[in-house]
Design goal:
Length: 80
């Protein structure tokens, strides 16, 4: 099992909360035997914990979630 943790400072507690809410369903639906994703919010930071059976699945899940966080952050910034 391979683990990775990614912490992102979103800059706003409210935005971090909305991003975590939006990604929870993705994390639940994407969790398979190859990988699992856990989301946590600590203040204005998001902590994403990845657990995977192989490096390829770990890399693809990290890429997907980092892109989604970036996209959601841009959308929330635009709506401000």
């Amino acid at each position: 099992m391979v683990d990775a943790k990614v912490s992102m400072d979103i800059g706003s507690k409210i935005k971090a909360e909305k991003i975590v809410e939006a990604l929870r369903l993705e994390a639940k639906s994407m969790s398979t035997l190859r990988f699992k994703v856990l989301l946590r919010r600590k203040g204005q930071k998001i902590l994403i914990i990845f657990k995977s059976s192989d490096l390829s699945a770990l890399r693809s899940s990290i890429n997907s979630f980092c892109r989604w966080v970036n996209m959601l952050r841009n959308v929330l910034d635009t709506l401000e």
